[in-house]
Amino acid sequence: MGRSTDMGVRRFGAVNWLGTWTLARREVLRFMNVWSQTIMGPLVNAGLFLLIFTIAIGPGRGDVMGMPFMVFLAPGILTMTVIQNAFANTSSSIASAKVGGNIVDTLMPPLSAAELLVGYIAGAVARGMIVAVVITLGAMLFIGMPMTYPIWALGFVLLGSILMGALGMVAAVFANKFDQLSAISNFLVTPLAFLSGTFYSIEALPPFLQTLCHWNPFFYIIDGVRFGTLGVSDSSPWVGLGVVLIWSAAVLGIVWYWLKTGYRMKA
């Protein structure tokens, strides 16, 4: 579809709804075609994390924030899995297109920077939400995880998927090879997720490390989901909501500008 047909496909306030929907659908089908890796894989990994931690330290750990350790652990593992999958969806999609040299197939159609952004983020959100639903149902069924404030939990999962999808696009823009993308994931995303209260309450940390955690947006995503499921948290969910919204808006703005200017997209 060439630029000459631009006005012919745009409707409803000059938005290319068809093109945006097509891109979003492509991103969803991309991970659904390998659902055993993208859906079942995270469920198995989350179950293994719960099992190993419970066997290793669960019986002697006692309650955490008034909750059995296994129940306390579940929202952290759920959120960690969601943000890792949302990040992987956009980063792998764009990096694969860049390395394969077919990124032009996405950039050439009459899609604005905002429409490209929405299409890619929709795929990340869909993957994150499906993973969240599967793990939540498993946790509620097998360990009795409650759902105290479902709207809060849903909101933080949604915002976390948006933020991580945008960060995945940032990583893919900078990465010209898959090993560079793996390095970003292994040395930045995974440590930040692990060191943000996934497996513990940050009240157990020294004051200096607690302060560092409060600068980590992953902490607020995990803490917000924990509040939505268990009704307990290390910080105010309203503060967390504000922090995640600000981070999401900032990263989305950066990615939108890069898409608009074509920054490193063909590198």
TrEMBL record:
Cross-referenced PROSITE patterns, in alphabetical order?
ABC_TM2
First and last residue of the signal peptide = none
Q: Where are the transmembrane segments?
A: 34-57, 69-88, 117-143, 149-174, 181-202, 238-259
What InterPro entries has UniProt attached to this entry?
A: ABC-2_transport_permease (IPR052522), ABC2_TM (IPR013525), ABC2_TM_bact-type (IPR047817), ABC_2_transport (IPR000412)
**Domain ABC transmembrane type-2 as annotated: residue spans:** 33-262
Instruction: Please report the record's description of how this protein sits within the membrane.
Output: Multi-pass membrane protein
* Entry keyword annotation includes Transport: yes
Q: Which UniProt keywords apply?
A: Cell membrane, Membrane, Transmembrane, Transmembrane helix, Transport
Where does the protein end up?
A: Cell inner membrane; Membrane
A Pfam family = ABC2_membrane
Q: Which family does it belong to?
A: Belongs to the ABC-2 integral membrane protein family.
Please give the name of this protein: Transport permease protein
Q: Which organism is it from?
A: Octadecabacter dasysiphoniae
